[in-house]
Amino acid sequence: MSENDDRPLLARRLDDLFKTVRPKGKHWTNAEVAEELKRINPELKAGGVYLSQLRTGKRSNPSPDLLAALAKFFGVSVAYFFDDKVAESVLSQVAAIEALRQSGVRAVAMRAAGMKKENLAAITAIMDQYRQMQGLPPVNDADSPAADKPGPSEPV
Questions:
Q1: DSSP code of residue 148
Q2: What is the widest separation between alpha-carbon atoms in the chain?
Q3: How many CB atoms lie within 10 A of CB 17?
Q4: pLDDT (tens digit, 9 = 90+) per residue, 49-97?
Q5: What is the DSSP letter of 154?
Q6: SS (H, E, C) 68-108
Q7: Phi/psi class of residue 24: alpha, beta or left (left: φ > 0; alpha: ψ in -120 to 50)?
Q8: What is the pTM of this model?
């Protein structure tokens, strides 16, 4: 989210979901999401124009039912819309998933699976050097959910 974004918090968070989360592996338009929500719950009042207005901040008071349906559709907790810590966690998980979607990252992960800890450390050191040469920021392994967990070939 841009710090210069003057839209209401709900608008920014909903827009972030549309831009980053890919239910069923695709980006969804406002109209497609509205149609899907109505398919699941025909009583729900939601249209593509209304979702667009929520995303831009022109409308700002969706019903609790609509928020719950949007949260369910995008696979997040309703708290995502209101709780900074939940939102930050969701967006960092989405970023990690998106990185894994890149075929090169997935290919490296597949090759690393099952390797001994010392081999992974050597490969990681090489990758860190290449990141530095390309001007990319260093990776902090402490941010990884599995950072302190033993791998499959390590004793517990």
A1: T
A2: 57
A3: 24
A4: 999 999 999 998 999 999 999 999 998 999 999 999 998 988 888 877 7
A5: S
A6: HHHHHHHCCCHHHHCCHHHHHHHHHHHHHHHHHHCHHHHHH
A7: left
A8: 0.61
